């Protein structure tokens, strides 16, 4: 994905506030050289961050007539307004080793025996994984095939086929669970018995 950035000469809280009023977002690019202060069009950036690929792929940033490869590292949102306050990018090249969270795309869940014939629920325990790899090998997402899931089974990190040169960072946890399968709990419907009719009042004795 490509996006345009512009050099930012003024810094400080006041300058950043004026940028935001003008529909711009202050930012910084770091890594592989001197940090560069930049500004971006807010609306264009706001729409870009809604796309999954903008978070998990190498981006092409046009700045001062040059194109640089960068990776989105962080952005800050206003506490209650749909407003981006600041954005950080990292310069990368083919030899840059990076650590990044990558989304998981689950496929074939509906056709798995667990769902199709065994009336089970498939629980996505995690929806993204932290991986480490060279920038040139960064995948946009990881595909998790659920087509063979059966009742009572679990899918772990080691069950995923990773691209060459890619490793999952588990922070010491041995083979974490990604997906689990549980049987649906059928609700028991209790029908309350209708109350017995009240006995007819007898006629008074004469």
TrEMBL record:
CDD domains on file: Ribosomal_L25_TL5_CTC
Species this protein is from: Roseateles toxinivorans
All copies of domain Large ribosomal subunit protein bL25 beta, residue ranges: 97-183
Family classification: Belongs to the bacterial ribosomal protein bL25 family. CTC subfamily.
A GO CC term assigned to this protein in UniProt: cytosolic large ribosomal subunit
UniProt GO BP: translation
Limits of the Large ribosomal subunit protein bL25 L25 domain: 5-89
Transmembrane segments: none
Domain of life: Bacteria
Record keywords, A-Z: Ribonucleoprotein, Ribosomal protein, RNA-binding, rRNA-binding
Quaternary structure note: Part of the 50S ribosomal subunit; part of the 5S rRNA/L5/L18/L25 subcomplex. Contacts the 5S rRNA. Binds to the 5S rRNA independently of L5 and L18.
InterPro entries in the record: Rbsml_bL25/Gln-tRNA_synth_N, Ribosomal_bL25/Gln-tRNA_synth, Ribosomal_bL25_b-dom, Ribosomal_bL25_C, Ribosomal_bL25_long, Ribosomal_L25_dom, Ribosomal_uL5_bac-type
UniProt function note: This is one of the proteins that binds to the 5S RNA in the ribosome where it forms part of the central protuberance.
Molecular functions per Gene Ontology: 5S rRNA binding; structural constituent of ribosome
Protein name, entry field: Large ribosomal subunit protein bL25
HAMAP family recorded: Ribosomal_bL25_CTC
